[in-house]
Structures are given as C-alpha cells and as structure tokens.
Design goal:
TIM Barrel; Enolase-like, domain 1; single chain; 8-stranded mixed β-barrel; binds phosphoenolpyruvate; 2 domains; binds magnesium ion
C-alpha cells in the first residue's frame, strides 16, 4: 500500500465542539474518518489534543506534518504495521505528543484503505485482522439520558433498553419502544406538572431526559417496555465518577450513600427489575467495590468503562481483582485500532464480554458499528434514537446484516 495524500480538517461533533476528520488517498482510493469525543472521561484515557481555545489546529498540523511525512514515505504491508509505526512516532504512554485524536483518525482511515484494497467490507477486514468471528451485537440504546450528559436531571448517566437478536428486528423493536416511551413520558410530565408544555428535554446522546425525584421511576418505565418485547432487558451506565461526594461516598438526588449502601441499592434494583448489565457502578479508583458487586451480581454483567479505559494495563489489573465481567471498548480511549483490537482480545481471554461504544460527542462516522460487528461484540452502545448520528450507527448495523448475508 502506498499512501499518496494525508490531510485533516476541523469538523463539529454533536455538541458542536471541534473534532478532527482525516482524509487519506492511495491511488484511486479516497477514505475519510472522524473521531468522537467523550465528556464523562476516565482519568487514564489517552489524551485528546486540543488547543487552548478548544480547536484542532495542533492535532491537524500533526496529521498533516509528522504523521503525513511518515506514512507517505514508504510502502506498507498492513494496517497493523502503520499503527505500530504511529504509536512509536508518538512515543508517549498516553499519545499526548501527537494526540490520540490525531492518531486514531489516521488509524481508522488506514483500516478503511486496507479493507477497500482487499475488496472486503470494513467489518470483515476487522474480523480478519483480529481473528474474530464476526456477529451482530446486542443493541444498547440509551433511552433516557442523565448524569453529566443531561445536567443530572436523572442521577445515572444512561438508562438503556437492551435488545438482542437479528439487528433489523432488534432495531424495529427499538424504534417502536422509543416512540412509545416518548408518548408515555409526555403524559407523565403533563400529570406531574399540570402543564401544556410537554416538550421532553433531550440529553447529549439523543435520549429523553425527564426529571424525576423518584429513583426507581425510569426503571418502571423501561420495565414496562421490556414486558412488551421478549429478548429485551435493562442496563445502566451509572458513570459513578460523577456521583462521588467529598465524604468518601456518592450522592444521588440529594441523598448520600456509602459505597456499601450504593451496592445495596444496586442489589435491590437487580432484584426488582429485569437487568442485563451495570456499567461503572463505582468510581474508577474503587476496584474493590466493583469486585464485591461482581461477586454478588449473579447473571448481571458488571462493565468497566472509566475503570478500564480500553487500556491493556487497566484490563489486566481488573482481571487480577476479578472486578468486572465486561469491558467497554472505546477506540479513542486508547488511540488506535490496533490497540482497541488488542483490548477486545484481552477481554475475551479473561472470559469477559466486550461492549463497543460510541462517545457522547459523536460524528457521522459509523466505524464503531463495523468494529462491533467485526469483533463479534456482546453489545454496542450508540445512544438513543433522537439524534441522527446515533441512529446512523444502528442503521449501519442493519446494512451490515444485509452485506453479511450476501458475502
Ligand atoms: C460513557 O460514559 O459510556 C459514554 C459514552 O460517555 P462519554 O463519551 O461522555 O464518556
Ligand atoms: Mg460509561
């Protein structure tokens, strides 16, 4: 593979914040890739390089300068070879010199080039690269947004409707359930506030964001939807880093909980509602509390996100502590496709589930859908259905279903 042109530009994500889009050219092939951006980030994530004013000037200069010089300088035999060279060129543990956003944009575009050169769909190239059996992931749809993504109108960050099975059928169920939830929320808001203004606020990830004082109310609403559709269940991302208080515990809707009390709260919720998984139930520093909950959660999957940040060292430590049973995989937490694939391989080696995820600031790039299908992930988190950039990920999975039937 000879790459002849490397360029980058600043685009805006769904929060209208700058992010980077990369374009690579090789012969007749032209590919693009853009990089999402998180808000509730773990402290061990790779560094997203931003200028003082929030812009992408330096990241773009790095792509078009040092990175372009390297990758146009010779022929390459694989995407892995280029990723290895990019990681070495940066030379830091957290990609802080060139920026994880700059490197990942190039890395995703490189993966696209190699797939196109081989004449295979992107998901298939990813499956072959990592030795995975490609398969449809469960859809984890963030129906109600809270936490940092919605000014804490709800205490937990994500109230998720999980749908398994064939993607086209799962997506149809999700569309129906999301519309139904909207109707129900309108009538609940109307009776709660006795108002004609029944506009439901939306959160960052295209989910509804009503405000309830009762902690269990969102679960009652989701459980009613689950009761209507077999093969569905509930998940949450507590994103508990953001719930910490300064007395060593957590605060939810004005009430303080010690870590043990919060664990008891989760145990009660699991007993009462049809739960599938809980992500980041405690802060990223509380590996021991994760392990206690995992030990008593039974079939309910405990997922590390801010805890593990798609980082091999963090996943290894979590494995030793038996802290979790699933790892959230976000390519931009680690900064290259190669390392994201390795994180999935490590997750599988631990006997755990891999759940691939978008970020709360998204673009129209649907790479994560191909990635989730290619690695045969347990699930994909791509937000609610109230935002185009979220729907596009699920819709790409429906396209992949058709491609997989044809190839
Ligand atoms: C998450 O916490 O799982 C998430 C998608 O949010 P963010 O991108 O803000 O980290
Ligand atoms: Mg999370």
């Amino acid at each position: 593979m000879k790459i002849t042109s490397v360029s980058a530009m600043q685009v805006l994500d769904t929060r209208e914040k700058p992010t980077v889009e990369v374009t690579l050219i090789s012969g007749e092939m032209v590919v693009h890739a853009s990089v999402p951006s998180g808000k509730s980030t773990g402290s061990h994530e790779a560094l997203e390089l931003r200028d003082a004013d929030g812009g992408m000037g330096t990241a773009i200069a790095n792509v078009e300068g040092e990175i372009a010089s390297l990758i146009t300088s010779r022929e390459w035999s694989s995407a892995d070879e280029i990723d290895t060279a990019l990681i070495a060129l940066d030379g830091t543990r957290d990609k802080s010199r060139l920026g994880a956003n700059a490197i990942l944009g190039v890395s995703i575009a490189v993966q696209r080039l190699f797939a196109e050169a081989a004449g295979v769909p992107l998901w298939k190239a990813i499956a072959e690269r990592g030795g995975f059996s490609a398969a449809a992931p469960r859809l984890y749809l963030n129906f109600m947004n809270g936490g940092e993504h919605a000014d804490f109108r709800l205490p937990f960050q994500e109230y998720i409707f999980v749908v398994g099975g064939k993607t086209s059928e799962a997506y149809a169920i999700a569309q129906d359930a999301f519309a139904k939830l909207g109707t129900v929320l309108k009538s609940v808001l109307k009776s709660n506030f006795n108002t004609f203004n029944t506009e439901i606020p939306m959160g960052d990830e295209g989910g509804y964001s009503p405000k309830f004082e009762e902690l269990e109310k969102p679960f009652e609403l989701l459980a009613a939807l689950v009761a209507e559709h077999s093969g569905t269940s509930i998940a949450i991302d507590a994103a508990a880093n953001a719930l910490r208080n300064d007395i060593g515990g957590y605060t939810l809707i004005g009430k303080d909980y010690t870590p043990d009390e919060l664990r008891a709260l989760y145990a009660g919720l699991i007993k009462k509602f049809p739960f599938h998984s809980i992500e980041d139930p405690f802060a990223e520093t509380s590996m021991g509390d994760f392990a206690k909950l995992t030990a008593e959660a039974g079939e309910v999957i405990i997922v590390g996100d801010d805890l593990t940040v798609t980082n091999p060292e963090r996943i290894k430590t979590a494995r030793e502590a038996k802290a979790i049973t699933a790892v959230l995989i976000k390519p931009n937490q680690i900064g290259s496709v190669k390392e994201a694939i390795e994180a999935v391989q490590m997750t599988r080696a631990a006997g755990w589930a891999a759940i691939c995820s978008h970020r709360s600031g998204e673009t129209d790039d649907t790479f994560i859908a191909d990635f989730a299908y290619g690695v045969g992930a347990h699930g994909i988190k791509a937000g609610g259905l109230g935002q185009k950039e979220r729907r596009e990920k699920y819709e790409r999975l429906v396209e992949i279903e058709k491609e997989a039937e044809a190839v």
